[in-house]
Amino acid sequence: MRPSFASIDLAALQHNYQLARQLARGYSLAVVKADAYGHGAVACARALAAVADGFAVSCLQEALQLRAAGIDGPIVLLEGFFTADELKLCYRHRLWPVIHAHWQIELLEQQAQEQQLVCWIKLDSGMHRVGFFPAEIGAACQRLRACAGIDLQVLMTHLARADEGPNPAASQQIDCARNMAQQQRLALSLSNSAAVLGWPQLHATWSRPGIMLYGANPMLRPHELVASLRPVMSLQSQVIALRELPAGEAVGYGGRFVTRTRSRVAIVAIGYADGYPRHAVDGTPVLVDGQRARLAGRVSMDMLAVDVTEVPQAKVGSKVELWGKQLAADEVAQHADTISYCLFTAVRRVPLLYDQ
Ligand SMILES: *Cc1c(COP(=O)(O)O)cnc(C)c1O
After folding, report:
1. Per-residue b/e over 237-256, b at no fewer than 16 CB within 10 Å?
2. Tag placement on the chain: N or C end, fewer CB within 10 Å?
3. Is the CB of residue 80 below 6 angstroms from any atom belonging to ligand 1?
């Protein structure tokens, strides 16, 4: 079998959730959208089911997958329902849609039922993606409250620049959301991971940590609390070939990497079709037998090359970590001009192996 896989440490996931919950106070939704950021939504949700106050996903399909796996607690649909049929399924499966647009209110009015449906409402406090403007929120809440069975509980907003740490734009969004929630007598949900870590004093009713559950840093800069997070995914493979090359030899497609001296180059059985970023530059760190080595040349679909001149023990069969416990995904992401979110959600083809 191809020696490439992503191992997933569910105890680390539990640890990170507990930390997020402690920092944010109140209730914490574990965000497990996009297959738990590539970590496997069902396994992650099961591992958290006993401790999590609820889960958040991006769409109905993701929620139904969790219900089918026996996840019984609250599930928030971050963009609500997309059609009238989906709204029916929200009732049937007791999902909590976030209402962000007038057309969704119209569907709710048309389908008013005896049965209760917990709803959240989204405020556009400045990100300008979805949600009601501050001037519209009062009327939107009033319409929702007039619908039979609608149990409007939480006002939610999303911060555009929490990853910068405290800044005036984020403060403005927070003040606006607090005012609106108070006016409407609704509980408040503000914090993504960056806000949980960077603004732990926010203490709104519901936090929504995502990336920090998986052990990565959402902040633009290093952050002291990130050291307390434990990486959950380790993307691993093995050396399947080694070659000694004289100075001046080009390696891989386009000959991007050229040996400067006599070099040893290891070929690893993982590539961009597994989710390793093709944009990683020469010098991107790769761990070979626990030692740092450097990516050499363009990443291929199924393989990549690493300069192991300074890792003399490297041999065919050496273990390779692309990111994980000893090499932060954030560091690899920086070398590929991307973010850990993108690395994790791109992982495919390799099996996910669970530690617990
Ligand atoms: C994805 C998402 C989150 C989680 O964000 P992280 O940066 O991963 O913590 C929170 N809220 C909303 C609305 C989201 O879409």
Report:
1. bbbbeeeebeeeeebbeeee
2. N
3. no
